[in-house]
Specification:
six-stranded antiparallel β-sheet; about 750 residues
């Protein structure tokens, strides 16, 4: 199942056509110009401007005075409508532009001129006063005669002067062949290997015979050597590959490289410090995802921003949100929580599994033989609550838990005790857009059984973990969990609408038996009550193989209950069988790992990588790591650690999927406020942010224009416009945080 259904929209609803337009000619197989009067020799027609922009001819260019004090890019714009686009046809989008003073940013788009204002291509060059020429090639994902070329110029504090010339949208050009820069053919974990852990790499080569390899330290001295192991053609990448195992080397240091077949890998460390830091950075990510609180610069330098969705204009706010029309007669205060991904929506089902995995990270530190609670103690994450004598990871998770509790339907209302599925904008917004600048109406969406059981499960888990620190909150959480459980039993098949994907993700799910199993498990572990034990033992899922190839996720939650039943002390009948099922699943994942030349416990059916595949690699590794916690068998420790290699650079693209980690790393994830690629004044995602990863379905237009026909691991592009391969999400980072914490504990 896909994680969510999103559409990247240009929020151009406020654009006003001020000048006349001319009909466009049809595009054909030959190169055909779609823009009329892109040279501005005698007139500006048929170009329009928004009403606050003054434009005219100047030396054969269209020049415009752009006002200061606007909020959004689309608040000031120049454009042309009635552009014809043909689905599958490639276009060259070219123009010259200047901005004075230097450093101004123009967002140039090709999109739809009418609702829902989809964007098909966009670029945001930083302009100079002298001017530069720009040219880009893209493929249209649609047929339309209502296209638009526009230059969005607003969002600045000060007024500035914009000029453009030679604007062209030429159809029928040869499609641009996208060739990702995969760097050296020796693919390694670009971050770190543990000195006493597994050390594996992959060589891409045309050779079918074993080749010599060398491990060199930072000074270039050879410290280990051996021969590769040919693996043939890797299905996941269509590459001929060989494996390198240098695990016998137990030294440590920085700046190591592997050399084979005339290629030198990216540098990497052998040591423990990187995982200690990654544990913290992957958890620090959540503070900058918070809604309803200012992000403080002294806590996250470069990431300060005003609080979002607190009913301060232009926000319509989360303090008194109504339901979608016709659903309910009340409003709820649903301030707080985490923004789910790159948009401003907040979702109970995705927030639930994310909260569980953060709480599980903490619970493992207390229960596992190698766990280190001090590593997650008060003060470790530099958040506003640091210093309150509560472990910071619990403080961070509580920010989301408090929001989840607010999503419960009040007493006296229809479906009381159920949880609303989500809250988000009534319509999609564009990029970039700070949470505090979101002008859209917010709406509560219908309660669902799945959301209700997510609330029951996480609130029950919270009740046992927060009890030593805040007994009142623990009691409140348990009361809400019981109420949610009772409501779900009364309404067991109220499922989310799979078509409810306007303004936010749909998160479709037509089966709640896994959520019932998970919630019953958490309630039993917290209360010990027979009613919950009976539901667990009577569920067919209690003895089923619930650890599939795709692993646990927001729509496959039974594994969360199974893992906690196996690791949290309890007296459930048949618990030995439950623990054994975890090791059996780990054995299956290890078998998969060994068959994959890139060494990950993930081989989706048909080689079709799923949305958020990186989190599935990590969650399968989570199962392997839990088997190590249960048995102490080294094979599970090594398998879990080796799984991290894929995420940190040992993959077909030779890219670390974690921002700030590795010489070549993802850093343009799809987000409305980590949007440096579109606006130099905004930051890239913070260190420790996980990209979604390869997705064979490539649902977004940008990925489709670059990746059609991609194979497995190559279905990914590090661009902010690729929301289907390169989004950030709270559940994905939770998987990273759990595994980074496990790896750090093995040092």
């Amino acid at each position: 199942m896909k994680r969510r259904g999103t559409t990247l929209l240009a929020a151009t609803a406020l654009l006003v056509a001020a000048l006349t337009t001319l009909p466009a000619g049809p595009a054909g197989a030959d190169e055909v110009e779609q823009v009329r009067n892109g040279g501005f020799d005698t007139t500006t027609e048929p170009w329009w401007t928004t009403s606050n922009v003054t434009a005219g001819l100047s030396d054969g260019r269209l020049c415009a005075d752009v006002p200061g004090g606007t909020t959004n890019r689309w608040d000031a714009a120049v454009g042309q409508n009635d552009i014809t686009l043909v689905k599958g046809e490639s276009y060259k989008f070219a123009f010259t532009a200047s901005g004075s003073p230097d450093g101004q940013v123009a967002r140039a788009i090709v999109g739809l001129s009418v609702a829902p204002y989809d964007t098909y291509y966009e670029v945001s060059p930083e302009l100079s006063g002298a001017g530069n020429s720009y040219a880009y090639t893209f493929t249209s994902p649609v047929d339309t005669t209502q296209g638009q070329v526009a230059f969005q110029l607003g969002g600045g504090t000060d007024a500035w002067h914009f000029c453009m010339d030679d604007v062209s949208l030429l159809g029928g050009v040869p499609p641009e062949v996208y060739q990702p820069d995969t760097g050296p053919r020796v693919r390694v974990n670009q971050v770190a290997y543990l000195p006493d852990g597994p050390k594996n790499a992959t060589l891409v080569t045309t050779s079918t015979a074993a080749l010599p390899w060398q491990l060199r330290n930072a000074a270039g001295a050879v410290v280990a050597h051996g021969r590769t192991v040919p693996r043939g053609t890797d299905t996941a990448s269509a590459q001929n590959v060989q494996s390198i195992d240098f695990g016998s080397y137990r030294g440590h240091g920085e700046g190591f490289t592997l050399v084979a077949d005339g290629e030198t890998s990216h540098p990497f460390a052998i040591g423990t410090a990187a995982y200690q830091q990654l544990r913290l950075d992957s958890l620090k990510y959540y503070y900058t995802q918070r809604s309803g609180i200012p992000i403080r610069d002294e806590l996250r330098p470069g990431y300060a921003r005003p609080a979002g969705h607190l009913n301060v204009a232009p926000n319509q706010g989360d303090a008194n949100v109504p339901c979608q029309p016709g659903l309910c007669a009340y409003t709820l205060d649903v301030t707080g929580g985490w923004y789910d991904a790159g948009d401003h929506g907040k979702y109970v089902v995705n927030g639930g599994i994310s909260t569980w995995e953060l709480l599980s990270t903490y619970e493992r530190s207390r229960l596992a033989p190698t766990g280190r609670p001090v590593s997650l103690s008060d003060g470790t994450l530099a958040i506003p609550e640091s210093g309150n004598k509560v472990p910071d990871v619990l403080d961070e998770a509580r920010w989301e838990l408090e929001f989840l509790l607010k999503m419960q339907v009040p007493d006296g209302q229809p479906l009381a005790g159920m949880a609303h599925d989500k809250v988000h904008d009534a319509q999609w917004t564009g990029l970039p857009l700070l949470p505090s600048q979101d002008p859209q109406k917010r709406e509560l969406h219908a309660p669902t059984t799945q959301a209700t059981l997510n609330l029951a499960a996480t609130a029950a888990q919270a009740a046992r973990l927060y009890r030593p620190y805040d007994r009142e909150f623990a009691a409140k959480a348990l009361k809400a969990a019981r109420k949610a459980w009772t409501a779900a039993l009364a309404h067991p098949t109220v499922y989310p609408d799979p078509n409810d994907g306007t303004g936010g993700g749909a998160y479709p799910d037509d089966n709640a038996t896994d959520e019932f199993y998970w919630a019953a498990a958490e309630l039993y572990l917290t209360t010990g009550e027979r009613q919950f034990a009976d539901h667990v033992t009577n569920s067919p899922l209690n003895t089923a193989d619930i650890f599939g190839a795709l692993g646990l996720d927001w729509s496959r939650t039974a594994a969360a209950g199974r893992l906690d039943l196996a690791t949290v002390p309890n007296r459930l009948p048949g618990r030995d069988r439950i623990r054994r099922s975890v090791t059996e699943a780990a054995n299956t994942y290890l078998t998969t790992l060994r068959t994959q030349p890139y060494g990950m416990p993930y081989a989706p059916p048909g080689n079709l990588y799923d949305w958020g595949s990186n989190s599935q690699v990590l969650n399968n590794a989570h199962v392997i790591a839990t088997a190590y916690d249960l048995t102490g068998a080294t094979k599970y420790r090594d398998g879990a650690l080796q799984s991290m290699d894929y995420i940190l650079g040992r993959n077909a693209l030779n890219m670390s999927y974690v921002t700030g980690y590795g010489e070549a790393n993802s850093h343009n994830q799809h987000s409305r406020w980590y949007a440096h690629e579109l606006d130099p004044n905004l930051p890239n995602p913070p260190r420790g942010t996980l990209a979604g990863g390869a997705n064979s379905s490539i649902q977004d237009p940008y990925a489709q224009s670059k990746l059609l026909g991609c194979v497995g691991q190559f279905c990914y592009i590090d661009d902010i416009q690729s929301w289907s391969t390169n989004e950030t999400a709270v559940n994905w980072n939770a998987a990273l945080a759990w595994m980074a914490s496990f790896a750090a504990d093995q040092s």
